[in-house]
Amino acid sequence: MRIDAADLETLQRNIVLSHAAGVGRPMPVPVVRLMMALKLGSLAQGASGVQADTVRLLEALLAKGLTPVIPCQGSVGASGDLAPLAHMSASMIGVGEIFVGDRRVPAAQALAEAGLTPVVLGAKEGLALLNGTQFSTSYALAALFEAENLFRAALVTGALSTDAARGSDAPFDPRIHQLRRHQGQIDSADALRRLMAGSAIRASHLVGDERVQDPYCLRCQPQIMGAALDILRQAAATLGTEANGVTDNPLIFPETGDALSGGNFHAEPVAFAADIIALAICEIGSLAERRIAMLVDPALSGLPAFLTPHPGLSSGFMIPQVTAAALVSENKQRAHPASVDSIPTSANQEDHVSMAAHGARRLLEMVENGCGVVGIELLAAAQGCDFHRPLATSRPLEAVRDLVRRAVPHLEDDRYFHPDLEKAIALVSSGAIVEAVGRDLLPAVEGRTLS
């Protein structure tokens, strides 16, 4: 419908208030701030038809640490992330709530305390603020940063598990991987080979070992982890492009005076990127769980059953492996593609949507599950290597074992396991494991560490 010029300000305010219909718990503050930064970058490109004061207010909110309270559910990832961006926009007109440090403050009060004036939205500005993929993209990027750390930590624990099981590093020979040509595979094999270089455990069974081949969870690490690395790199390229793009509607072209209505708000690229990140996260954890299962099985690992010096009397790592299996199964369920689902909205005007929002939002919890699995593997692999004393593993992997043993002692007899798991998972999720071996030893998603 055509709106009279006198009603344009009312229209913009109505658009914001009516679209602020999200539900669920608040978005994490760092993700909100990333979303705001992406929206700021989009508006600043000059194709959205907003006044300078609107851009300056969004910039000031970031600079002063004022974070809108935004419910995390309600977007289907098309016509923009309407509901969450509406909650962000509402705070800019003095409606809703804002986090000020740990305080949850009415928006008008928070703006006044910071010396800021709510913006009065002009023509097009409500649409410019609400349209866009910044909610979905910020969640996907935040998860990508964490997934990179998970990937690198899993390479470290995979190498440690290989030594614990007295596995071979021959499958990591660069000649094998050059023939297949996948760069992620080449990079992963190189990292695994360098992680194990100089291991006395490996040297001890170079001659006279009757085993012919290791299980796939050891032997095929470069192929599986390399494939995960390749698709994480693909997702990074997509999300980097999206983060720097303009995704609201209509778009203004001042050089010609045109206002063109299109569909840049449709988040299909983000939905696909989120789906492949989910696949990578799921497979990283799945492979790590198989290595845990291999380590606790004496028929496969050659180690004491369940990695305890007292099998039968002690359960050792029996139930941590079960926990890892539970986490992997949960991630498998969450890895179902979100992008293949579409429910028409807005009286069938918006008849195909991307579902990028929840496709991206699930990822952080999937990474958390993955860190749980890799944390359990970290303890199991360190325990397995303990049985080979006085033989040591390689220098970088010994640095990891020292880090683990400063936090969690060797498991001699059964004890309350939960605190040990929490400490190990923290070592993984914090990046401490990656730092212990050195970042330069491990491949990154973009040739450099994203996070």
Keywords:
451 residues; mainly alpha; Fumarase C, Chain B, domain 1; Fumarase C, Chain A, domain 2; 2 domains; 20 helices; 5% strand; elongated
Structure, explained:
- This protein has 451 residues and is mostly helical.
- The protein has two domains: 128 residues, Fumarase/aspartase (N-terminal domain) (Fumarase C, Chain B, domain 1); 305 residues, Fumarase C, Chain A, domain 2 (Up-down Bundle), CATH 1.20.200.10.
- Helices cover 57% and strands 5% of the residues.
- The chain has 20 helices and seven strands.
- A three-stranded antiparallel β-sheet has the order 2-4-5. The protein has a two-stranded antiparallel ribbon with strand order 1-3.
- The radius of gyration is 26 Å and the shape is elongated.
